[in-house]
Amino acid sequence: MNNSLAVVLIAAGVAYGxxxxxxxxxxxxxxxxxxxxxxxxxxxxxGAVMGFWTVQRVHATTAATLLLxxxxxxxxxxxxxxxxxxxxxxxxxxxxxxxxxLTIFAGAxxxxxxxxxxxxxxxxxxxxxxxxxxxxxxxxxxxVGPILFGQNALVYFSWLCVLAIAWYxxxxxxxxxxxxxxxxxxxxxxxxxxxxxxxYVHTLVGGAFAGLxxxxxxxxxxxxxxxxxxxxxxxxxxxxVIFAFWRPELCLIGAYFFGALQALAPExxxxxxxxxxxxxxxxxxxxxMTIAVLVAVSSGTARRRLGAPSALGVAYVRxxx
Amino acid sequence: xxxxxxxxxETVRITKKFPGVVANDHVxxxxxxxxxxxxxxxxxxxxxxxxxxxxxxxxxxxxxxxxFGEPVSFTCPRDAIDAGVCMVHQHFRLxxxxxxxxxxxxxxxxxxxxxxxxxxxxxxxxxxxxxxRYRLPVDPGAHVWQLSVGEQQRVEILNALYxxxxxxxxxxxxxxLTPDEADTLFETLRQMATEQRTVxxxxxxxxxxxxxxxxxxxxxxxxxxxxxxxxxxxPQSLTALMVGHELHTVRxxxxxxxxxxxxxxxxxxxxxxxxxxxxxxGVSLRVRAGEILAVAGVAGNGQRELAEAVAGLRPHxxxxxxxxxxxxxxxxxxxxxxAGVRYVPDDRIGTGVAPSLSIAWNLALRAYRRLSRGPxxxxxxxxxxxxxxxxxxxxxxxxxxxxxxxxxxxxxxxxVIAREFSGEMRLLVAASPTRGLDVAAVETVHAHLLExxxxxxxxxxxxxxxxxxxxLNDRVVVMYEGELTDVEDRQSVExxxxxxxxxxxxxxxxxxxxGGRTPNExxxx
Lengths: 321, 525
Fold this sequence. Notes:
The structure holds 2 protein chains of 2 kinds. By secondary structure, chain A is mainly alpha-helical. Chain A is 71% helix and 0% strand. Chain A has one domain (5-306): ABC transporter involved in vitamin B12 uptake, BtuC (Orthogonal Bundle). In chain A, helix 1 (5-32) packs antiparallel against helix 11 (195-221), helix 2 packs parallel to helix 5 (111-118) and helix 3 packs antiparallel against helix 4. The longest helix of chain A is centred in the first third of the chain and has 29 residues, at 62-90. Chain A is globular, with a radius of gyration of 20 Å. Chain B is α/β, with parallel strands linked by helices. Chain B folds into 3 domains: 9-243, P-loop containing nucleotide triphosphate hydrolases (Rossmann fold, 3-Layer(aba) Sandwich); 252-340 and 425-443 and 452-525, Rossmann fold (3-Layer(aba) Sandwich); 352-422, no CATH class. In chain B, 32% of the residues lie in helices and 24% in strands. Chain B has helices spanning 47-54, 77-82, 100-106, 124-133, 149-162, 179-194, 206-212, 235-243, 303-310, 333-338, 348-352, 359-363, 368-371, 379-392, 409-420, 439-454, 466-472, 493-500, 505-511; strands spanning 9-18, 21-31, 36-40, 62-67, 70-72, 85-88, 167-171, 198-203, 215-220, 223-229, 262-272, 278-288, 292-296, 316-323, 326-327, 341-344, 427-431, 458-463, 475-480, 483-486. In chain B, the strands form 4 sheets. Chain B has a 6-stranded mixed β-sheet, sandwiched between helices. The model of chain B is unreliable at 507-525 (pLDDT under 50). Chains A and B meet through helix 9 and helix 10 of A and helix 2 and helix 3 of B.
């Protein structure tokens, strides 16, 4: 039963969806503050390479090394986000241009690739990686075994993050302030909320989550470094935020859905199931879905109805002559 | 009233300069506890600037603000709120996607909102209680976007009361209200005053100031020209203070300039609205040279679509429009302009001008094609022309390079008129040309409409303002649900009002006896 296509796909969806989940949670926080960050892909790549660098170079226990790798990946992502934040919040540059520039700067032929080459990380097996750690007997339980108990620690950590962010947004004072900043910075400002600070903090935390998402790929899913290893996951994460109506709990479902789509092609191949040019369409499916989602919600009115923060993408200037 | 106590709020020789304008020039102003104090003045007189300084949005260049006798220096609106000074802006500072209760908690630093964990439902009881006491009923669980504009204003006032405000500024609060809602608002303000709070009511509408205030301070060109007790003032005396001279009300001698020559003929014109359904349904009309045809009606009955069809901005789906006997090409704005049609749209900032361009560029929007040499714009010529237009049309601006968006409403309208009055004008279509303008600007716009007619142009004046229609028209038609009906007696408020409500000419006679003024308000009411 645990070998049925559905169970395998869902279990793989949870695993492959976790980097998407981290990155989309980060994007969600930034967007809720009104900052659109199209640099996610670049931030993920930098996080991925720096996380992998840590496990290759630091000699300590596996647990300590992995923890350090996550911290360094998060810091690397946040450092990238600082550039974006400075450009779009302080200098009020166009958010789309800045985000695209960052992705190009850090992307497959940019910073992350330079770091990978310069630090000679390519084509090496990882010295440490995340593994399922719950007792093997639990992993064999029908259905829930592989899906819920066969995962690595990052998956469980991401669940905590979803809960924490959902609670933060709906129940806490800073969460309410954050939503106000993203919806109506003028109202927030006149109530004494520091719009600039909220945007900086959440853009940086968003970048850290993107870095974490990148590290999830190089430390847990495919423990190695290859140029452009994220393969567009950052773009899927951006679409996911819209797909999830800017709600963390729906990010989780969406991320697993896209994760399962990514697992579809190898799984079908492994089972010798062919439906036309299987590899072609199955590999293209996540991207086609991403494009479909983005097109469907590209009109401003649709986005508003879906719950996009009203001030998303708009720099805030206090009203003065 | 305690005479010895210091005023609740006081400004001492406040000066605030913006590039090219002195918005406040040594303003001394004070308001007492327990009074409704009106701040009266034309647009651009400095009322809003003064209130922004007192409520912490602007820093004054000179002078001092005192609260209950103590000097205060607010660096942001929050400081002012904490000190008990709030402002209800013309554009509300509410988070639309939040509920009423969430909006209240957002600014709350004392009660339910001061903890890390929040529960917006905790304030619902207080909302109900405040709502009852001040006649501001709102559902605390409703989302702000679901509320009417009048209800949203209530939320703003509730928010101020919830913050325990001592001094409340309201910037043109009635601009968005129906007359009934305005009356209720006045009761709320009076109630606040009896509790020794201070209400500062910013307005340029005389009858409201007379109705609600205890005292009036009049600003003109950034200076205080007088503070008077409302009981001792008359609308005439206040107007004189406000504009600096007595106004001569325009009134048209009917048919003064009307000639036989027809400038516009429309025959069975149909046009679709923005939603794709017919908004103009078989309109036929004729305007003669020198004639002012007033089109009355509640907004949204197809007036804008008709105006745009005539101006060539909107294609008509059926019928024919002729200017001076020549059929107008359907939906061709340039052809309409070349045929002598001039258009003053009701949406000044959206359709009338390109707000982020300079005054000079906006003035050249019609003429640039004629003035340009090849692909190059004659920038020097544009600047000189603009300087002249600023002079001729008395546009208050720092110069031709000023960003158009920074003009006040009246000056914006003067700019549109200055541009449209260029070249040979045969037909002027003016849609709500005086909406939102102060008395002096209204006077100027009316003078320009009359000038256009006496120069031999036909004028279509679309308006919701009956006083304006009665003052200016040679002939009145009413637009209702896309159709035009003639009005026989051009000075009959009853007849026009009934037609505006959709009464057919035959039914009108039966109802005329009971009909008062127009029963219609703006459609958002």
